[in-house]
Amino acid sequence: MKILITGANSQLAQEFKENLYDKYNLYALSKQEFDITDFFIVYQIIKEIKPDLVINCAAYNFVDKAEGNSLEAYKVNVLGVINIAIASKEVNALVVHYSTDYVFDGKKEGIYTEEDLPNPLNEYGKSKLLGEMMLPQITDRYLIFRTSWVYGKGKQNFLYKLTQWAQSQEYLKIACDEFSVPTSTRTIVNITLKAIEAGLTGLYHLVNSGYASRYEWAKEYFRLKGIKKFIYPAYQSDFNLPAKRPRWSVMGNEKLEKLLNIEIQEWREELKTWFLSL
What we know:
42% of the residues lie in helices and 17% in strands. By secondary structure, the protein is an alpha/beta fold. A six-stranded parallel β-sheet has the order 2-1-3-4-5-10, sandwiched between helices. Strands 6-9 form a two-stranded parallel sheet. Helix 2 packs parallel to helix 4.
């Protein structure tokens, strides 16, 4: 099987490469090699490779920057998805695409399911939602996974930032009123591959089980890492960030668990497993 991975330098793509390189005919291409916003490049390379599967790990995920640079966010998160979908349909390739919990506004008093109506609060969330909406309009061979608070071996994640802050600041202020599901790239890759093997299509919430505040997540990570640093439980409003964020964007993974007949590991256990594997 031929697999094309976009955004090859992202933390999610790195996890896929570690899992797939010795098993499949893998083409992992960086932005410099495969700019998904350029239709002619996308079309030419996909027609040339003729992949059976395209895993789109390319994304514009700078949440705050997107407020002042929405054009770039929409180019990558919407136009890029359209380009990939059109070219993939030409070669009958399955498209795997990743979205976000930020498609929700956080007003629900309960766990978000795939049936809940999105209502994003920021430009990043709006661009990801539009990308979700466009993909099924072009091809019926797709998998969309909404995920949240993704962490892995890269630098573009909350845990890496925590480690840097701990080295340079006397104490940390972390939001205690913002809740979602910390989810590892290990989990995302593992469940994605199971879903592909099972022949699933459609949209699913792919997260670890349970939920946490950013404050709880930071405390647990520092405990595992042995970092003795005081963390002050602050409020989301204290940070005055450009992009509004949902206070509650906890998604449930029960649909995937039922269809795949599996149990997805609870976020604390997965964090511990991931940490011990480093």
